[in-house]
Amino acid sequence: MICSLTICGGDEKRVDSRTIYVGHRPCPDTEAFIPSKFCDNRIVSSKYTVWNFLPKNLFEQFRRIANFYFLIIFLVQVIVDTPTSPVTSGLPLFFVITVTAIKQGYEDWLRHKADNEVNKYPVTVLEDGRSVKKESEKIKVGDVVEVVEDETFPCDLILLQSSREDGTCFVTTASLDGESNHKTHYTVPDTEKDLQALPATIECEQPQPDLYKFVGRMHIYKPEQEPAVRSLGPENLLLKGATLKNTKKISGVTVYTGMETKMALNYQGKSQKRSAVEKSINAFLLVYLCILISKAVVCTTLKYVWQSKEGQDEPWYNQKNQKEKDTNMYLKMFTDFLSFMVLFNFIIPVSMYVTVEMQKFLGSFFITWDKDFFDPEIQEGALVNTSDLNEELGQVEYVFTDKTGTLTQNNMEFIECCIDGFQYKHRDTRSELDGFTVTDGPVNKLQQKEKEELFLRALCLCHTVQVKEAGSEEVLTDQVDGIDGMQPQPEEERGFIASSPDEIALVRGAMEYGFTFLGLESKSMKIKNRENNIEEYKLLHVLNFDPVRRRMSVIVQTKSGETLLFCKGADSSIFPRVKPEEVDRIRMHVERNATEGYRTLCVAYKQLSAEEYAVADTGLREARLALQDREQKLMAMYNQVETGMSLIGATAVEDRLQEEAAETMEALQGAGMKVWVLTGDKMETAKSTCYACRLFQRGTELLELTVRTLEDGRLKREEKLLELFCVTLFNVNLKSWSTANQDYGFIIDGATLSLVMNPSREADASQYRSLFLQICQNCTAVLCCRMAPLQKAQIVKMVKNSKGSPITLSIGDGANDVSMILEAHVGIGIKGKEGRQAVRNSDYNLCFILPQFLYQFFCGYSQQPLYDAAYLTMYNICFTSMPILAYSLLEQHISMEILLDNAALYREIANNAMLRWRPFLYWTVLGIFQGLLFFFGVRFLFSNPALQDNGQVFGNWSYGTIVFTVLVFTVTLKLALDTRHWTWINHFVIWGSLAFYVFFSFFWGGIIWPFLKQQRLYFVFANMLSSVSAWLVIIILILLSLLPEILLVVLRKPRGPHSRQVYLFLPFPF
Amino acid sequence: MKNEGEATERPDNTAFTQQWLPAWQPILSAGIVIPGFLIIGLAFIGIGIGLFLTSQTIQVLEMDYTGIEKDSPCFRCTIQSVQNCTCEVTFSLSALFTGPVFFYYGLSNYFQNFRKYGVSKDYYQLTGDTQYFKSPRDVCSPYSYDSKNNPIVPCGAIANSMFNDTFELYQIINGTKKKVPLDGKGISWWTDYNIKYRNPLSVNGSFASAFDGTVKPINWPKAAYELDLTDPNNNGFLNQDFLVWMRRAALPQFRKLYRRITEGDYAMGLPAGNYSLTVHYNYPVLSFDGRKKLVFSNVSWMGGKNDFLGIAYLVVGSLCMVMAVVMLIVYAKFKFSEEDDA
User: Fold this and answer.
1) How many CA atoms lie within 13 A of A399 on its CB side?
2) Is there a domain that residue B49 lies in?
């Protein structure tokens, strides 16, 4: 069987499993060693290489409507005889494309750098009996890799050997799922110490993204023996991206590499998505495109109508050449249409994207620079990985947050306990019984003391905590001395390592009250009691924690030969297993603690008689060795042992919230955002955290949809699910009718969610999802617990794709987001107004192009441009872009302090409010008004073109230049009117733009340009300025076109926060 | 992958990076806007009155001489067959037409702003670059070569269609015609005459030889080097009439400066009396339903007569005043209600 399987290993692509030869050694049992092809260990998050950057980037850029459109226009200009030269649209396009390419190239270069750092990281690989340093990217599947403490695993490894005696190692997966506690992983049993010559193959499933699932088996070949088969599970698998902790060195064999590692698979699918702002821009562009086309159609039609009049088509002074005469009429029409398109093409602002890009790009620097995002502990500020979605920060509707490490500090603290119904609370004063005192009720001192000590011993013994070995130097001396291995370190600094921070908190708690856990050495646990005596217990069995039982136990033997079982676990799992009369005394405390947001555990014990122990011992051993149904057998045995205990007490541990987490949450909710907590944690903990950070308020009605509520004997899970869905939805709807102010919280767990997402019948999927979404949307807060990372992504995706495609924001992954979430709303608040510039830009262009359109009626529809080519080219990229950029970057229409205090202001800008159709329409109408004004104002002035006091007349370029001057001044001053926050940069850019325009016009018209075929603007601008009438018309037109804006500003009821409003919105009185 | 090494440095604590740049935060409150509007309104009304009065003082005399009507003096020149037609237009002034008087010709329904027409010239020819005399640019087509394939200089539609009616003005004193001297200098832009356009250098002392191998534009009665044989500074491409024509009009109805009356007895203006204008009628406009006219006008600091600007200033000025009053009322009401709320 083995042979057949390994032979299949060759064509990996077709089978669901892969075979790995440990150390690339052919195994004696297989006939042929078939090295199979796996991908190398390179991580590629970058999009481009040096070679494909240009074509690929260009391709992606031209996929944008606007860019593609300008490319088309450019090509039309090149091919067809059009009014403006290809340069006029080619140059801005080139500029836009270049700037975008530079920006994207820079961002990709950063990704390359990051990739390289990972890929070139030196890794020790065991090869032919030697340790070889290799670059991480060179690792192949089957390589045996060594990793030392605090290093990150370079690929997915099967743990073969650990420096720890018990064949375990500790890892933290903070960068994978955000859980920063230590997890224990186990070596594969029976792997020989000599890895150099371990003849073994591993057969495992093909890579899949689920971090917590792994199935495989290992065949170990021994000479003259049947190969031993060991099953492999997730506890043997070390994931790339996780970090080795508290273990000096491990060796493992590579199973998945590079893009096939679970981490890479989890990070995949991060496709570049379009931001909502860009979507609105596209919609507006479409409107403008329609305007453009209709303009071109109107002009073409009118042109032919007009031409049909006698003498108009070809007056003697402007005859057509032979080629024009020969051209087909319809072709001519089409060419005319294209020419009009080209002439009006600037109505679509070429620079809009580039302004938006630049704004995003530079805006991201503000986030990086922000001191308030800086975390002094890790010496890092916020890091913006992609600037593409900056503006979305202002549009967030849903906030998805991780719990551990994001809402909470993941730093547990022992708060209080309850022993035999009496509450003990730690007081700062150490004088009185080490600060461990009864804080309620009278107490029988002597009897109580016994109980106390029992309880504290239980805390000291019932756990899987390891004492952290201090730095290697100290370890060395320990080994040399060998006598006093337990050289007492300063107790406060003693480090513990455990798979759950709760355990550490409990052990620390016990330590504070005088019972110190010294460590586990060869199956014996040492604790130091209050009298500073060392007590030693023999650890007989550990009944591991599992989420179903929700408790764990240890069986220890005291010096005196007593066998004790200590058990701790969730109240719900302990209470049924202890004497009922004890429960009542403790339950009150537990419930009170739970509502205070503490994580509670109950502690019980039982004394085992020799016979009882013997039964348990054999039972446990058998179950542990069972090859089939090991889990179930163990579970049954555990349940059998953990009965008839007596309750000693309960503990309350606080997972401290991040500073100001509650305030942040309230601010987020105040800002109208829906907050979802997605966590891998168990429900109770998560729930209490949600209470603690005020995500769930006291008045919030909770709707639960978990495995527990689904456990119903009568119905299948899915049926029950559907039923519950309907009931919940009905309730929510009904109650929201009756009581308007009822808040709902919704709780769902991973298992239920996967039932929702992937029901057994595909047909139900959409129904479930829509039901689920409907419920969620009616709830102010949603808690999803026991989530796998991919499930988190699924949820986010589902919400994102729901109706109205709301903007979502996710927070999580590791410690550097800590300060980010605390301050997230600040950044959001300040950065909220950007979208507006897109609309502005388009209205700029409307009043820019409208006079050109109107001019067609006066020039026989001959596509005569009104403005000079230089002005056409520069308008967007030079004269108007900088003020917009500065405005979008620096504008703070409401001061930071007010924004911080007043989260509800966020509602104003959320939903892309600035980019809605109403303001768009307003800007458009205003643009049309201004365009008409500019054109006809100058038109009436030119009814007598003798505008100078020397009687000389102005020509068509003077006309265009006057209109253009009015235009540039108007749009810039309009922006100035809208700027409420004038920093020196705004001053510089706004006045600078105007000055630049004047300077440029002088310069452009002041020189005979040798490369130009005509000098049509020569001295036009200077001559214009020598005319008083031109000055006067410019002034009056600017004022007139700004008038509506000024009126609006003045007459609009002053919005924005007044002082009294601010207090109204304060989350709570300080 | 997260890149951890990137931002380990503490962000700069500068006003710029922290977005704390000191800022001026003007608020367009009614307290500023209302007085502002009042001031602007008053100023505009003032300017408007000034403009309007100035415009009113400007004298303008316009005469259509196209000859559409049968009884008009130039009617007979509209008949195609008549060559070198001359007609006489008379007018009388009842008062002194204050000088300097500017003499314009005007054309209507004439599209100098046609795109194809507008580009139909060779700038290099017009800077006197004889290289381009032999091969005019394509854009001049169909006015670049004559039927015998000789290059046309100056090529292109604009040059070809140069206005070629000429006028002589006489004051009729006691039945005798006294010629009014017309000054043809300074009617084009200074830069056009001095910098932008250049004549080709004379070959062997003869200006005309520079044009050897080229032909005159089809519609011209004489070659470019014969435009003004009396004054070499007004000849060729530097002929002022030519330069005026080459500066294209913005609109299909336009006027161009023809002459100034600045000399002799008429430096102070045209005295009251009868005048006769001899028109050498060459320029056909009826084929495209155009009109030709003569305009005598004097100018002020604001240029020629234009009532629009004055009226616009008066209207906008009054509008500002009205709005200031409206705003004052609205603001007063609003402010009082605000105080009631508080």
Assistant:
1) 31
2) no
